[in-house]
Amino acid sequence: MSANVNTSLPLEYQSGQSRMNILGFWIFLGAEIALFATLFGVYAVLSGRYAGGPTHQDIIMIREVMIQTILLLTSSFTCGLAIFEMRRGNKNELIMWLVITLLLGAGFLYMEINEFIHYVHIGASMQTSAFLSSLFVLLGTHGAHVTFGIGWAILVIIQLIKRGLTSVTARKVFIIGLYWHFLDVVWIFIFTFVYLKGLVL
Amino acid sequence: MGIKWDEFFITGDPLILGAQISIALTMIGIVFGLTYLKKWNWLWTEWITTVDHKRIGIMYIISAVLMFFRGGVDGLLMKAQTSRPEMEFLSSQHYNEIFTTHGVIMILFMAMPFLIGLMNVVVPLQIGARDVAFPQLNALSFWLFFSGAMLFNISFVIGGSPDAGWTSYFPLAGKEFSPSIANNYYAIALQIAGIGTLMTGINFIVTILKMRTKGMTLMRMPMFTWTTLITSVIIIAAFPIFTVALALMTFDRLFGTHFFTVSGGGMDMLWANLFWLWGHPEVYIVALPAFGIFSEVIATFSRKSLFGYKSMVYAIVGIALLSMLVWVHHFYTMGSGPAVNSFFSITTMLIAVPTGIKMFNWLFTMRKGRIKMTTAMLWSLAFVPCFTIGGVTGVMLAMGAADYQYHNTLFLVAHFHYVLIPGVVFAVFAGLYYWWPKMFGHLLNEKLGKWHFWLFVIGFNVTFMPMFFLGLSGAARRTYTFSAESGFAPLFLLSAMGSIVLAAGFAVFCYNIYWSLRYADRNISSDPWDARTLEWATATPVQHYNFAKLPEVKSLDAFWFMKKNNEGLTLKDSEIEEIHMPSNSGQPFIMCVLFGISGFFLVFEWSIAAAVAALGIFAGLIYRSFDYNDGYHIPVDEVRETELSWRNKKGEAHKHVS
Ligand code: HEM
Ligand SMILES: [Cu+2]
């Protein structure tokens, strides 16, 4: 199974096992789409059910959300740069861009946690209403994914430092890249359907 | 955390006390037995840490048989309770628990693992591969299923079993109406097992798409492989919905959110929708592979190629698509209005079209075939009329207007048993009789098999046929007793008697396993059924690397044509190369233990302890990330020796030449 090596392909695609891992990860992302689609559906059904509690307009802090969005979108861009450097075989630049990506991600996460704390302070907790339950779980699932991604990427960076750029580490970086872009896409939907729609409607 | 120890063990019920004692004794017995026979090491190195798809498949199947026993006992207890009017064998609470665990165990811990087990054993062989795409992930899938199943099963002695039905509808399943921890078992055990299933889905899609041997195009794949592929796609689409639904249930019950609650703006019918958005496709997740098994068995024993191969493929794809569009038929009575109900009536009835196509294809496969009445074939033959009864009553239930009459009656219970038992149980029995030699190197006894078959099929019909009529005359499902005046007594008694025959059939099956393990002839050829597909193009039982030389496929029914044209059956010394295989790993099992512990704490709402155990899960993931073991190589000599040991025997088509 380790045979099947094709050196004309980019490093991360060279071994047969790597090609399978990458395909497997795409399918996993398919499952993630189904998962987030369900959460969005739940949110769509419950988002008007305030049960006498706060509404969208009462809680959304659009300035902070804009900053979060910019942080995360930029991190997706730097993640793209990381893969670009990987394709050119520059290990150090790759690591640098990955670290920048993670810092941006951590900034996003810091703001999101603050946002949650703020909500709870003004009396909008997960237990208040169906609307808030669905909001917290939708945002929280995304945030948990980002947290998980940061931890995972740190592990991969350690392996990059220890082992250099091999077909295995390259594949791991590539897969993390897919994951990170995916989280960005989910955020765009959250930004549109939760925040913008919440403000306008 | 507020641990309530008085709720920990279930006390005060003699049935359960008996169960607790027997569980404890069995465990002690197993530990002593293994120690005495010095088998711990063997168990660990050969089974627990294995990443071999065939052994993983066997472990799935063993677990499924055990779960069938457990679920079957539940079924018999229910039948005993309703055998006479006003029986006082089980209390209403106990009855509630039992139909809940019966339903969950039969579908999630019996049907699914049985089929996934057979997929594991057979699919890599059918596509001419040496393993699945991700062998260690495969082991993890199994161990997560096992962890979930064990967690769910201990509920009846520790903490209490869930009692809100296998559908666990809200508001009943919520904290307000089910305050004890029992329903947490449902939310958490199914979550753990579900993660395993999802990973199985990914694994099989990649395996089938990427690891087919040379020449095996998609349209040359055996039908069981096709159904596995489509099933895996349904798993990817449907299981995440259940993951979310269970997570939201857990939040509602443990952390006071308002997704499905009555207060706080929650919406109970949202649960029903999410549940069936997963639940209906789930029915096809178990039915499609079963259809695949019948296709293989019928083609082999009719000694013909499967009739209408292409239409079979389109039919399963069609069924998969439609299966996503029918979920509302489970609650027409919710009152969504005529337009919605009509839409879902039509989509539901449409499923009968591809299913009908498949039926006719099987019949035409048999037409003019030289049919061999083996036990596996008998199951396939019995499937046709029995499943048709299930299908026709399904079309009756599909009519939204009429369903107001049948809804929640035993008519429905009879219907889905007529679908699930012929459609899944008959299939796994057929598959076991057929593929048993591939796993164990000997056949199951055919004569005992016939006893098994007749008792089971007759018992099944006598048990469930009366339920149609009971349901039509108004007997509600999930009711623990009935009055003598209702007039239900004769049919209920008949049904209970049928279930005894059914149980006798299952007992013969267990005895058959025992008998065959001990006495069956080990000196069989690698192809005892004169079969058609690649799993038979190698040794029986299969050597751990599956194929010394990967076969080349030139047509459908590849092995049949290899035999006919006498191609590719000989192995030359010069063709033997060393073979790369994945190494064993204990990590999946350790993850199983950690998930089990963490889940157990979460069931008891000991969140801090659960979080600590979850740290262990993360440690396991980190360990895996740093694990760079990429297997080992089997030397040429070892391969040659293994091949020589089974090729060149008398009556063996496979040869070895130096
Ligand atoms: C082996 C013999 C079996 C017997 C005797 C049996 C008997 C029963 C009975 C008596 C009920 C409850 C009826 C009521 O509502 O009061 C029931 C429910 C059910 N059975 Fe079976 N059954 C058997 C096999 C199976 C199999 C193989 C499956 C699935 C693969 C299955 C799935 C279910 C489900 C999902 C329910 C509904 C549980 C609920 O109401 O929540 N059963 N069965
Ligand atoms: Cu359905």
UniProtKB/TrEMBL annotation, chain A:
Gene3D superfamilies: Cytochrome c oxidase, subunit III, four-helix bundle (1.20.120.80)
Membrane topology label: Multi-pass membrane protein
Source species, domain of life: Bacteria
Keyword terms of this UniProt record: Cell membrane, Membrane, Oxidoreductase, Transmembrane, Transmembrane helix
Subcellular location: Cell membrane
Catalysed reactions, as listed in the record: 2 a quinol + O2 = 2 a quinone + 2 H2O
PROSITE patterns per UniProt: COX3
Domain Heme-copper oxidase subunit III family profile: 23-199
SUPFAM superfamilies: Cytochrome c oxidase subunit III-like
Top enzyme category: oxidoreductase
Main subcellular location of this protein, as a coarse class: membrane
Pfam families: COX3 (PF00510)
Enzyme Commission number(s) from the entry: 1.10.3.-
Regions that span the bilayer: 23-45, 65-84, 94-111, 131-161, 173-196
Stated role: Catalyzes quinol oxidation with the concomitant reduction of oxygen to water.
Xref: NCBIfam families: QoxC
PANTHER family membership: CYTOCHROME BO(3) UBIQUINOL OXIDASE SUBUNIT 3, CYTOCHROME C OXIDASE SUBUNIT III
Similarity comment text for this entry: Belongs to the cytochrome c oxidase subunit 3 family.
Protein's name in the database: Quinol oxidase subunit 3
Source species of the chain: Aquibacillus albus
UniProtKB/TrEMBL annotation, chain B:
Primary location class: membrane
Cited Gene3D superfamilies: Cytochrome c oxidase-like, subunit I domain
Source taxon at top rank: Bacteria
Pathway involvement of the protein, from the record: Energy metabolism; oxidative phosphorylation
Cofactors: Cu cation; ferriheme a
PROSITE patterns, sorted: COX1, COX1_CUB
Protein's job: Catalyzes quinol oxidation with the concomitant reduction of oxygen to water.
Record-linked PANTHER family: CYTOCHROME BO(3) UBIQUINOL OXIDASE SUBUNIT 1, CYTOCHROME C OXIDASE SUBUNIT 1
Family according to the record: Belongs to the heme-copper respiratory oxidase family.
Protein name: Quinol oxidase subunit 1
UniProt source species: Aquibacillus albus
